[in-house]
Design a protein that fits this description.
By secondary structure, the chain is α/β, with parallel strands linked by helices. 47% of the residues lie in helices and 15% in strands. It has a nine-stranded mixed beta sheet with strand order 10-9-11-12-13-16-17-18-19, with helices on both faces. The protein has an eight-stranded parallel beta barrel with strand order 1-2-3-4-5-6-7-8, surrounded by seven helices. It has a two-stranded antiparallel sheet with strand order 14-15. Helix 1 packs parallel to helix 2, helix 1 packs parallel to helix 9 and helix 13 crosses helix 14. The chain starts with 5 loop residues before the first strand and ends with a strand. It comes from Lentinula aff. lateritia.
Length: 522
């Protein structure tokens, strides 16, 4: 059985100047590479054969299987463990006939059709990619993206076919790649193929060892749920206790909450953040994203009025937040309204891992590609999903993060649990940006959750802190404050409601949360 965990694809053209190919291979194996594919471009048969033979001797010494790219004849000549073929190389059925029994055959797949064919051809493994855009190879097919890998992996359920991700996988995106590519049925990649991160390194041993470390911490951290959460079981009572702890933490620590949001509700969102005890910074420019990611407690990305400069900032800010393991709250405002929003949302979610995605039913339907609920611009139409609990849970599994579906009732899921919250007031639906404010409240509470979890083990996690509780706390703070504001005599309608809401967020007490929270965990 081949261990596909760290699959090295060689590329002599990528070696740093002065680096010997065989020495680099030796070091990579010492660093922990578990399988090697020899890839040669434009090399004469005799030279390829010589390289394959010498590479095989090195791999054998490490007891690591060697696979030959494309050339069945070379694989036969050196008794390689396997052959890897591309879509335009030797067909799998013919390679199978030519090769001795037990020789592994792998094929590159970019889409469902290619994957279906590979499965029916009886391949042993598939290389799914490109996962990221890459400079190692000129791509003539669309990038699959981390989320696309998960959809393809689902197809392998019930088969013995193994899968490695390939294309642009680096140390800096490895954890995100592993986490984000798990299918809704919990099928993860069996390994990752790496080229330049190892081959182009002047220290291939260290490069391989670092990649192995991430692989093993991810695997020991287990599934999405463990990677996202700090607690494994919730009850309504434990959730309320947790929310109050976070709420107090926000007030005690005043975390910085970085928000890239729309120009309709920017001031409202900043005011709500302050009222909760956090500190907003509404910064959009690429050049400052890294600095802010070091000091902030959480990031909110809201595409309400998407403009090019802010969009560039969003791309970078999310990656910086992931690198710092800070919570990223994403609000795909009006995603169904235009192709531009849709493709921007896809690029953002393929670039970084959101910790929480928040939207109304129409927005989340558009994100999930469902036409069960329609939207009009930034608003949802109709009464929502027939089974909102399952919808929220499935979307959380698909996007590998916590999902908040807002509305008269809010549904919050981490892919396993669904918290059903029925607090709120209809006046929230009669002011603009209540959803955007909800995003700010969630981000503030996720920042509090992150501070509370500071002492915990960060290894193998993409985000620090219980973002499920952060999301519930943000929604409860807003909706309970809205109920209290609506009760006030000075509130006569939407115009007087908004300032009262800010006052109530400011004076909200743990007692009000305990007394008023209407929460059910399913
Ligand atoms: N009729 C209602 N009754 C109770 N709560 C409501 C009602 N409408 C909205 N809310 C609350 O308001 C918050 C925002 O949800 P909503 O679904 O209105 O956001 P949205 O459509 O994204 O808003 P916007 O586009 O104005 O920012 C949620 O926490 C939700 O519970
Ligand atoms: C009205 C509106 N348009 C873009 S963003 C926004 C705020 C509510 O989502």
């Amino acid at each position: 059985m081949i261990d596909y965990s760290l699959y090295l694809v060689t590329g002599r053209e990528l070696l740093p100047q002065g680096q010997d190919y065989f020495d680099s291979l030796e070091q990579s194996l010492q660093g922990g590479v578990t399988v090697v594919q020899i890839r040669e471009k434009n090399t004469d048969t005799s030279e390829f054969l010589d390289i394959a033979l010498r590479s095989k001797a090195i791999c054998d010494r490490h007891n690591v299987p060697m696979i030959v790219n494309d050339r069945v004849d070379i694989a036969l000549a050196v008794q390689a463990s396997g052959v890897h073929v591309g879509q335009t190389d030797m067909p799998v059925s013919i390679a199978r006939k030519l090769l001795p029994r037990g020789t592994v055959i792998g094929v590159s797949c970019n889409n469902i059709q290619e994957l279906d064919k590979a499965i029916s051809d009886g391949v042993d493994y598939v290389g799914i990619g490109a996962v990221w855009s890459t400079t190692t190879k000129t791509l003539n097919k669309p990038v699959v993206g981390v989320r696309g890998v998960g959809e393809l992996l689902r197809k392998l359920d019930g088969t013995s076919v193994k899968a490695v991700g390939i294309g642009g996988i680096k140390l800096k995106n490895l954890l995100r790649t592993l986490h984000g590519s798990v299918s809704t049925t919990n099928r993860a990649l069996d390994g990752v193929a790496v080229v330049s991160e190892i081959v182009a390194s002047t220290r291939p041993r260290e490069a391989a060892a670092k990649l192995c470390e991430v692989l093993s911490t991810f695997r020991s951290g287990g599934s999405i749920i463990k990677a996202m959460r700090t607690r494994s079981e919730y009850t309504a009572g434990s959730v309320i206790d947790g929310v109050i702890q976070i709420m107090n933490c926000v007030r005690d620590h005043n975390p910085l909450v970085h928000q890239i949001t729309n120009n309709v509700s920017i001031a409202q969102s900043a005011n709500a953040t302050i009222a909760l005890g956090a500190s907003p910074i509404m910064a959009t420019t690429v050049q400052e994203m890294e600095d802010i990611s070091r000091i902030n407690g959480a990031l909110l990305v809201n595409i309400g009025t998407l403009v090019p400069t802010a969009y560039e900032g969003m791309v970078v800010a999310g990656s910086c937040a992931n690198a710092q393991k800070k919570p990223v709250v994403f609000d795909p405002v009006g995603v169904g309204a235009s192709h531009f929003r849709q493709s921007s949302v896809n690029t953002l979610l393929d670039t970084w891992q959101a910790s929480v995605i928040k939207g109304n039913a129409g927005e989340l339907a558009a994100l999930a590609g469902s036409n069960e609920v329609q939207s009009k611009g930034v608003d949802t139409i109709g009464s929502g999903f027939k089974d909102p609990v399952s919808f929220a849970r499935n979307l959380a599994r698909k996007e590998r993060c916590v999902v908040v579906m807002s509305g008269k009732i809010d549904y919050i899921s981490d892919g396993t649990n669904v918290a059903v919250l029925s607090n709120g007031h209809q006046l929230l639906g009669q002011i603009t940006g209540s959803g955007c404010i909800a995003g700010s409240c969630i981000a503030s509470h996720c920042a509090g959750a992150m501070i509370l979890a500071q002492g915990e083990d960060k290894e193998g996690k993409l985000v620090i802190g219980d973002v499920f509780l952060g999301a519930i706390g943000g929604i409860l703070a807003l909706t309970i404050s809205a109920e209290l504001a609506a009760l006030r005599e000075d509130v006569k309608g939407p115009g007087t409601f908004f300032p009262a809401l800010i006052d109530e967020l400011f004076t909200l007490t743990p007692r009000s949360i305990q007394e008023r929270a209407r929460i059910q965990i399913q």
